Amino acid sequence: MSTSHDRRKEKETLTETLIRFLRERYRDGVGTLAQRYPNEQRSLVIDYDELYEFDHDIAEDYLAKPGQIREYFEEALRQYDLPADVSLDRAHVRVSNLPAEHTHYPGHFSPTKVHNDEPYIGVEGEIVAASDVHPKVTDAAFECKRCGTMTYILETDRGFQEPHECEGCERQGPFRINFEQSEFIDAQKIRLSEPPEVAGGEGQTIDIYVEDDLAGRVTTGDRVTITGKLQLEQRTSGNEKKSTFEPYLTGHAIEVQESDQTTIEVSRDERDEVKAIVDGELGDPLEVAAQSIAPGVFGEQYDHMKRAIVLAIVQGDWVEGKDGSVERGSISILLVGDPSTGKSALINQAESNAPRSVGVSGKGAREAGITASAVRDDFSDGEWTLKAGAFVKANGGIVRIDELDDMPPDVRSAMLEPMANGKINVSKAGINATLQTRVGVVAAANPKYGRFDEYEPVVEQVELGSTLI
Ligand SMILES: [Zn+2]
Fold it and tell me: Can you say whether the dihedral through the CA atoms of 460, 461, 466, 469 is positive or negative?
């Protein structure tokens, strides 16, 4: 293994060491990039573990000075021995997959400490808002309206800079941006939240800025880990600067999890235990799982409900036909019974059994809270963005609905599309998007007259509308 000690001994520069790293560990990766650059691929993704294994010091330096080391890395890529007709002049190197101690949920780390010590971190969570992709000027050409001379300025993240004076007539403009002579890249702003199963309510969030080939890769509802550099922006109130700062991330790499899957750390013992259950060593696996649902609510009358909840949590496969038709992979459950018979306890405690679960109360529920809403807030600088509702947030898990009978009829109708198709088409405020909603619904309702009448058919005692049932 090489170390920085070897490097000094060999008088190798950092760039030379990184070229050697790329040659030894990413020969194929660089080759593929060279073939596909620039239209199909513009980035080489480096696994942090590979870098750490190759050279501890460089890997650790990367966490502390990601901007600088990344420049060396990209220089190494440009100097790499490539076929004569290929130049990777603007290719990116993206270091990804940081160890667990450098990967956090939003709000679960000290921004001060991270910013001071090792600002390169991974942030894991669910995307709750994503802006449109906008062109962002990186190299601006200012054309003087008086003499026509072009003055070029490299624009950075620290706000938009205009020339102090024209390079031709030395007057202060006025200028106009010459689009043909300027360079633009795609840019997008993303808001990442603690996952609902971690937050247990409105989660803490962090805003992330991504550029070029990372822009537009993800959408609202996606589960991701974004690696990048934590930065601080001073808060303002009107024109007044405040003494507090807002942390944000400049995203360098995105790993998308399957949007309907959740990563859970499983120990070896737990794995063995699960295997024993699946193999039937403790009895019928469905019975074993059912017993773990709301142990405080017990009695024979609940057994089949608990089995149904297990099946709703587990789900089957969703099959999408070529014609766009969908074979549903989930089941939905409605518990109807007299008040105070444990319905709410059953469905609410199912939360601790489901890897992903979002709760909705029927009373006061709004359509936007079920599907998605278009919002215009501080996040979007006055533009409309999509905010995920319960069915989108719970994709791959269950939606728990208490007091379904109190839910306004229009909100109940809004549940039909996501339940039937496993996705919703959203068209709001000029934004069109398809969001996945592969969920099992576990709901509870009271009978129409408050109590069950054992002489009337059940369906007539539930006032929910025939389409939903
Ligand atoms: Zn001029």
Answer: negative
CATH topology of domain 268-461: Rossmann fold (3.40.50)
CA gap 157, 172 in Å, rounded: 23
Task: Measure 152 CA to ligand 1 centroid, in angstroms.
Answer: 13
pLDDT (tens digit per residue) in 19-57: 999 999 999 999 999 999 988 999 999 999 999 999 999
Q: Which CATH architecture has domain 4-96?
A: 2-Layer Sandwich (3.30)
* CA 141–ligand 1 middle distance (angstroms): 13
Going from the Cα of 173 to the center of ligand 1, the distance in angstroms, rounded, reads 6
Query: Which DSSP string corresponds to 330-362?
Result: ---EEEE--TTSSHHHHHHHGGGTSSSEEEEES
Q: What is the Cα–Cα distance from 332 to 404, expressed in whole angstroms?
A: 13
How far apart (Å, rounded) are the C-alpha atoms in residues 191 and 249?
10
What is the whole-number distance in angstroms between the Cα of residue 147 and the centre of ligand 1?
4
Looking at residue 101, the DSSP 8-state letter turns out to be: G
Distance from residue 201's CA to the centre of ligand 1 (Å): 57
Give start-end residues of each CATH 3.40.50.300 domain in the chain.
Answer: 268-461
The CA 174 to ligand 1 mean position distance, Å, reads 8
Pick the CATH number of 98-257 from 1.10.1060.10, 3.30.2000.30, 2.40.50.140, 3.90.1150.10: 2.40.50.140
State in Å: Cα 170 to ligand 1 middle: 6
Q: How far is CA 462 from the centre of its chain?
A: 38
Start-end of CATH 2.40.50.140 domains in the chain:
98-257
Q: Which of 43-52, 156-165, 342-351, 457-466 has the lowest mean pLDDT?
A: 457-466
Residue 140 CA to ligand 1 center (angstroms) comes to 16
Judged against a pLDDT cut of 50, whether residue 1 lies above it is answered with: no
Q: How far is the CA of 221 from the centre of ligand 1 (A)?
A: 49
- Cα of 178 vs centre of ligand 1, distance in Å, is 14
